[in-house]
């Protein structure tokens, strides 16, 4: 996925929005690295971080963590291995793994599953050639993969939403009391769709609605929160426009169609799952880098798997 000019201010604007929330959970960089605070004395070289160290640094910033039940577990590698570099991404695809290897990174933090199902269960894939290839690639290069889904959404504020909001340039419309809803100046659905395509690098989007409709109250639900969540959000918030990542077409899309046939002025903008949450994993770079001095943290987008024709 290509980079956009709207993301060039990403690092600074996200830090401003997060404010004290991020600072409250952070661990002293000097303490972690063992740097001397006495003027004139040389800094002590840090011994480095294990995968488990990095995970624990992040978990200390998440309310209620570690969770007794979560999908955010290691999918490969060991918590004891030393980290040589960190890559954040939406999906730990074979391409992302190879890019991590090329940059010397051995720890991938991915938002979504590695092995094609929510729980990353692999017993049903043991004889599958694609699974075998990917698993062998991870083992060959000693890559640790940690899913970071439940925890990033549980961060206060939600790291994915903060990343998407910043990429879209909607920081000034953010309301921490109702973070799902953005009240914009009256913009046409066509204008909002064009902005999303430009800022998020999306070649096409899917829309139900009138392109000339003025949309002021926006309900933003990136990712795949499900039809019931979408519909309940519409009922509670009464938005002019619902923006989502992905949907089951027989759920949310049909509800929007019936709502419009009933006479409601509501529209739907579908971005695509990966591109709707990818900015949240860019947010993770700015959040994590100060906590792991001496370790390079970089974002490698997994992008959209679809070809649009």
Structure description:
The chain has 309 residues and is of the alpha/beta class. It folds into two domains: 27-60 and 62-154, NIF3 (NGG1p interacting factor 3)-like (Udp-n-acetylmuramoylalanyl-d-glutamate--2,6- Diaminopimelate Ligase, Chain: A, domain 1, 3-Layer(aba) Sandwich); 168-273, Udp-n-acetylmuramoylalanyl-d-glutamate--2,6- Diaminopimelate Ligase, Chain: A, domain 1, CATH 3.40.1390.30. The protein is built from twelve helices and ten strands. The chain has helices spanning 10-18, 20-25, 29-33, 51-59, 94-102, 129-140, 150-154, 159-168, 189-200, 227-237, 249-262, 273-288, and strands spanning 74-76, 86-89, 107-110, 144-147, 181-188, 206-208, 214-221, 241-244, 267-270, 297-299. The protein has a five-stranded mixed beta sheet with strand order 1-4-3-2-10. A five-stranded mixed beta sheet has the order 5-7-8-9-6. Helix 1 (10-18) packs across helix 8 (159-168), helix 1 (10-18) packs across helix 12 and helix 8 (159-168) crosses helix 12. The longest helix is centred in the C-terminal third of the chain and has 16 residues, at 273-288. The radius of gyration is 21 Å and the shape is globular. It starts with 9 loop residues before the first helix and ends in a 10-residue tail after the last strand. The relative contact order is 0.17. Mean pLDDT is 87; it is low at 1-46.
């Amino acid at each position: 996925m290509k980079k956009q000019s709207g993301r060039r201010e990403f690092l600074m604007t996200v830090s401003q929005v997060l404010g004290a929330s991020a600072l409250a959970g952070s661990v002293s960089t000097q303490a972690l690295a063992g740097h001397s605070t006495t003027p004139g004395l040389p800094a002590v070289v840090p011994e480095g971080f294990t995968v488990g160290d990095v995970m624990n640094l992040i978990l200390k910033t998440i309310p209620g963590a570690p969770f007794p039940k979560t999908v955010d577990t290691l999918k490969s590698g060991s918590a004891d291995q030393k980290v040589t570099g960190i890559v954040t991404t939406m999906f730990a695809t074979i391409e992302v793994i190879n890019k991590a290897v090329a940059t010397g990174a051995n720890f991938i933090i991915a938002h979504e599953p590695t092995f094609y199902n929510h729980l990353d269960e692999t017993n049903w894939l043991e004889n599958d050639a694609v699974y075998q290839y990917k698993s062998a690639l991870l083992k060959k290069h000693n890559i640790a993969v940690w899913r970071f889904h439940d925890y990033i959404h549980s961060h206060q504020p939600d790291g994915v939403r903060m990343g998407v909001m910043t990429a879209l340039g909607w920081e000034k419309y953010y309301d921490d009391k109702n973070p799902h809803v953005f009240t914009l100046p009256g913009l046409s659905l066509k204008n909002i769709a064009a902005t999303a395509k430009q800022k998020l690098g999306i070649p096409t989007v899917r829309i139900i609605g009138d392109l000339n409709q003025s949309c002021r109250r926006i309900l933003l639900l990136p990712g795949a929160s499900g039809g019931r969540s979408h519909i309940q959000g519409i009922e509670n918030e009464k938005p002019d426009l619902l923006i989502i990542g992905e949907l089951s077409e027989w759920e949310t899309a049909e509800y929007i169609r019936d709502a419009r046939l009933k006479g409601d002025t509501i529209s739907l903008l579908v971005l695509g799952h990966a591109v709707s949450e990818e900015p949240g994993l860019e947010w993770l770079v700015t959040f994590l880098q100060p906590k792991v001095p001496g370790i390079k943290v970089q974002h490698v987008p997994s992008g959209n798997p679809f070809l649009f024709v």
